[in-house]
Specification:
By secondary structure, the protein is of the alpha+beta class. The chain folds into two domains: 83 residues, Elongation Factor Tu (Ef-tu), domain 3 (Beta Barrel); 87 residues, Elongation Factor Tu (Ef-tu), domain 3. The protein contains three helices and twelve strands; from the N terminus they run βββββαββββββαβα. This is Riboflavin synthase. Catalyzes the dismutation of two molecules of 6,7-dimethyl-8-ribityllumazine, resulting in the formation of riboflavin and 5-amino-6-(D-ribitylamino)uracil. Pathway: Cofactor biosynthesis; riboflavin biosynthesis; riboflavin from 2-hydroxy-3-oxobutyl phosphate and 5-amino-6-(D-ribitylamino)uracil: step 2/2.
């Protein structure tokens, strides 16, 4: 589990294609690798990955992950190239401040950045995605975009708006995201559960009426 508060931006150091999976090597400041163990979970662009190896003898350190074909296909990790920046968050531990919302690290879909409007003190992003996911997205609700816990702005029949402050732009790779970029989306689990429960209740009511 994660908080949706991106700890740092890391960089793709190497990509090694294997049979039915890809090894990602991510360079990150060693300050964020303290007490790391093989088998630990780290969210990369919001996608929960398992640490297979790590090295902290140099600065920055490196962390290795094996990413299966299914994950590469369903997320934007398959489009990563060497030197790309990714959002990095260690898993939630007891005592961690929950500054965002509970994020599982299981990506539901990707959205396309369709519009970007920058001003001196904020940035507006418009994301388009498969309409079947819009029933779980509400104005003022939570959503995880590339692992960042954000508040939804206006919702349309094709997507939704985000309003980002400079801190978010500086701390995450959303600051560099360009129109056309695919962004990982995890809808709020509580919202998804409520919507699905209501749908099931209504469906049962229709069959018994």
């Amino acid at each position: 589990m994660f908080t949706g508060i991106v700890q740092t931006k890391a960089q793709v150091s190497a990509i090694l294609d294997k049979e039915q999976f890809r090894k990602l090597v991510i360079a990150a400041p060693t300050a964020y690798l303290k007490a790391l163990e093989t088998g630990a979970s780290i969210a990369i662009n919001g996608c929960c990955l398992t640490v297979t190896a790590f090295h902290t003898s140099t600065e920055p350190g490196t962390v290795e992950f094996d990413v299966i074909d299914e994950t590469l296909r369903l997320t934007n990790l398959g489009a990563l190239a060497v030197n790309d920046e990714v959002n990095f968050e260690r898993s939630l531990t007891m005592g961690t401040e929950l500054g965002g919302h509970i994020v599982s690290g299981h990506i539901h879909t990707t959205a396309r950045l369709a519009e970007r409007h920058d001003s001196d003190d904020n940035c507006r992003l418009y994301l388009e995605l498969d309409k079947k996911w819009l029933e779980y997205i509400f104005p003022k609700g939570f959503i995880s975009v590339n692992g960042a816990s954000l508040t939804v702005g206006e919702v349309t029949d094709q997507g939704f708006w985000l309003h980002l402050i400079p801190e978010t732009l500086d701390r995450t790779n959303l600051g560099e995201a360009q129109v056309g970029t695919a962004l990982n989306i995890e809808v709020d689990t509580q919202t998804l559960t409520i919507v699905e429960t209501v749908k099931q209740v209504l469906a049962r009511a229709e069959t018994t009426s």
